[in-house]
Amino acid sequence: MTARLSLDKDKVKFVLLEGIHASAVEALHHDGYGQVVSHGKALTDADLVEAIADAHFVGIRSRTQLTAEVLAQAPKLVGIGCFCIGTNQVDLLAAARQGVPVFNAPFSNTRSVAELVLGEIIMLMRGIPEKNAILHRGGWVKSAANSYEVRGKTLGIVGYGHIGTQIGVLAEQLGMSVLFYDIETKLALGNARPTISLEELLASADVVSLHVPETPATQNMIGVDQLARMKPGATLINASRGTVVDIDALVAALESGHLHGAAIDVFPEEPKGNDATFVSPLIHFENVLLTPHIGGSTSEAQASIGREVAAKLIRYSNNGSTASAVNFPEVSLPEHTGKCRLLHIHRNVPGVLARINERFSRVGINIAAQFLQTTAEVGYVVIDVDATASQIALDELNAIDGTIRCRLLY
Ligand SMILES: NC(=O)C1=CN([C@@H]2O[C@H](COP(=O)(O)OP(=O)(O)OC[C@H]3O[C@@H](n4cnc5c(N)ncnc54)[C@H](O)[C@@H]3O)[C@@H](O)[C@H]2O)C=CC1
Ligand SMILES: O=C(O)C(=O)COP(=O)(O)O
């Protein structure tokens, strides 16, 4: 474990992957952070390890896998920004144990996903994907067969969170009835109604739209049995995570004609960049709308995410605030004008705070302010002291058993 002194902003290195929006770079430069390296796509294996080996902050989107092994090879890492909603691509526990908070943008792209899904519901119910394909081949089939209004139909939303609720509200404006299933008790907006089980929702909905995070419980949540429970002629939409739907089971349900159609934005295996090839058994179905994980990819969402996550990283770097970190004790801190601030991250074992205070009192350091927050694994203490005492205080903190990382802010 190494003592980390506060660095000049010029020496703090940010590595941004996956084409993170220029608004993030602008925000970092505007705050005085000069070293920002941007990559246009996701990196893997040795390329990823090399790119982040000396980074203090790393910014990623949904594709970059920050595993425990990769993180262990980034010894200078201070913070991670997921410039998206999902954080399943990061080993959150390993990051916390390494003293690294992870931030994301929980709201900035939700409207974009909701709008895409709403458009897909209308397109699929009208059979537009097949009709579009026929005309592109020079054909002409003018028919009302298998073409329906959405008005009066039932939308079933699985995962009634930020995205699911917005879709429900918008769908009601189109005259749809909304059912939802969530593992948590949720406030029903508009006339939406909860179902007591996933099975009940699947059996009642004309369109099922998935908006759950990637967790062990949502892995292949929609498989053979669940698809069989859906109404004949129903439609499935997945803009959540590729692991939520068993693709082979979906293929079988489409081949048999049990489903009217589907819209799939996320896949179990996704290409790493725009020059890679997309492979999926779903490419053979004209009644399936396929999109390249662009649910949140609008100019508005990306610009807003860039600003939001950059601001969280800047705040953590400048004053130690971890408010809204997804894996870390959350501390929202005031400015530390006129004082030096020490950030002490430790394993959450009994007695650390007592040992800190005992050591400080033994060497006569006056604590101007102190903040503590813990999770089951990690403790985070922030202490403001006079500048004259800062180096002794840092040495004392580093000597404490259980210290993961200690940083000094001027
Ligand atoms: N396609 C794309 O570009 C995008 C995809 N996403 C994905 O959408 C997901 C949902 O986003 P938000 O609505 O913002 O998240 P959220 O956290 O606000 O909502 C998720 C909801 O799912 C519920 N849930 C969790 N596990 C469940 C289970 N096993 N069964 C039923 N409900 C369960 C939660 O209680 C919560 O209400 C994200 O986790 C992300 O993976 C998010 C943004 C863009
Ligand atoms: O916000 C999310 O969770 C998304 O899935 C969007 O991911 P992206 O930033 O487009 O790689």
UniProtKB/TrEMBL annotation:
Catalytic activity: (R)-2-hydroxyglutarate + NAD(+) = 2-oxoglutarate + NADH + H(+); (2R)-3-phosphoglycerate + NAD(+) = 3-phosphooxypyruvate + NADH + H(+)
InterPro entries, per database record: ACT-like_dom_sf (IPR045865), ACT_dom (IPR002912), AHAS_small-like_ACT (IPR054480), D-iso_2-hydroxyacid_DH_PdxB (IPR050418), D-isomer_2_OHA_DH_cat_dom (IPR006139), D-isomer_DH_CS (IPR029753), D-isomer_DH_CS1 (IPR029752), D-isomer_DH_NAD-bd (IPR006140)
Thylakoid recorded as keyword: no
Record GO terms (molecular function): (S)-2-hydroxyglutarate dehydrogenase activity; NAD binding; phosphoglycerate dehydrogenase activity
Enzyme Commission number(s) of this protein: 1.1.1.399, 1.1.1.95
ACT domain boundaries: 341-410
GO biological process: L-serine biosynthetic process
UniProt entry keywords in alphabetical sequence: NAD, Oxidoreductase
Gene3D superfamilies tied to this protein: 3.30.70.260, NAD(P)-binding Rossmann-like Domain (3.40.50.720)
Metabolic or biological pathway: Amino-acid biosynthesis; L-serine biosynthesis; L-serine from 3-phospho-D-glycerate: step 1/3
Protein family according to the UniProt entry: Belongs to the D-isomer specific 2-hydroxyacid dehydrogenase family.
Known role: Catalyzes the reversible oxidation of 3-phospho-D-glycerate to 3-phosphonooxypyruvate, the first step of the phosphorylated L-serine biosynthesis pathway. Also catalyzes the reversible oxidation of 2-hydroxyglutarate to 2-oxoglutarate.
Name the record gives this protein: D-3-phosphoglycerate dehydrogenase
Higher taxonomy: Bacteria, Pseudomonadati, Pseudomonadota, Betaproteobacteria, Rhodocyclales
Gene name in the database record: serA
